[in-house]
Amino acid sequence: MKTKTTSKSSPKPSPKSRAASEKANRYVIIMAGGRGERFWPVSRQATPKQLIKLIGDKSFLQQAVEHVLPLAPIENILIITNEAQAAQVRRQLPGLPKENVVAEPCGRDTCAAVTLGAALVGARSPTGVMAVLPADHVIPEEKKFQQVLSDCFDLASRGQAVVTIGIQPTEPATGYGYIKVGGALPAPQNARPYKTTFHRAERFVEKPDFDHALEYVNSGQYRWNAGMFIWSFVTVTEGLQAHEPEMYAACQRWFEVATQPAKLAKMLAKEYPSIKKVSIDYALMEKAQNVIVADGDFAWDDLGSWTALARHIKADAAGNCALADFVHVDGARNIIFDARTKARRTPIAVVGLRDAILVQTDDAVLLAHRSQAQKVKELVRRLAESPAYRGLV
User: Fold this and answer.
1) Structure letter (DSSP) for residue 332
2) pLDDT score, position 4
3) SS3 of 18, please?
4) What values do phi and psi take at 231, rounded to 5?
5) pLDDT at residue 188, as a whole number
6) Which of 19, 129, 189, 198 is surrounded by the most beta carbons within 10 Å?
7) All domains of the chain, ordered by start, with CATH?
């Protein structure tokens, strides 16, 4: 059918309408399936770290959603969790469409979750741009984070870049992966200059020992790998096709039923247990040649253990960090956390206790030396093996 042509050109969309259109095509995948075992006894299998309130009056998951709401509409925010936590996720996010909470039948590491997220986004918009973010990070400087993420969305929408956010290291931490970066990149042609500095990724490094971590920090050429990724649906699927063809094939199958929750759940239940268990860092990021690193110029903490919580609690003169009715004599550098219900809370009093972690819930007490905080995960495994204590996990 022919249409009548005129000499008038179509009006250009206003900056406001362009911004709205870009926002409508942005998606956020929040990974919320972890167990958070190092925060036992507050964190449990059904209510892990991302679903509990450690800092403030909202859970980490609720905070993660609030951080991205200015950048993407709520109907474009998707949560990938597991079957044990899906109901609680929906309760905590009542404004989120029910079908936007998708449960993995079992944990198969981050590449499978990213692949599932890509299928969900692609089925909604083949031209969509998606950010993949953890649910359990602490980001006090919300506005700065939003600026960086907005610039990453824009860059990822312009070409075939795999974008990740790297955090400027503040200490030689051995619990994080590192990324070596090259010089700063210029802004794309015909684009406004970004407020965020971008670099080409030169090398990914697994968690180093202390001496190497110190070398990386002093060099100024490394960033912490924060596990935040931004890419278009086309870019991530092309990356999977090149480096993980089995994942790419799975993505194609899930894509076909991604808008039909019942069919998708049935297919995932059948296929997921046999999906390759591999991290997205190893499967894609370390192999891709088109990785761009954004400088995460904002305060950030992945809060991996009780000792990390102390960084966010004001200490008293003796270095005690307490979220409790706490009194002491000669106590120093302790972390005290009372998670009991209000009716059951009583003062926590210590004498001569130093460098300890003391956590109380209604049904359990944790007492550990600060230097052994990472072994709480081992304790949880021990509890799970015991018929008498399995219910505490």
Assistant:
1) B
2) 38
3) helix
4) -160, 165
5) 83
6) 129
7) 17-296 (3.90.550.10), 306-392 (no CATH)
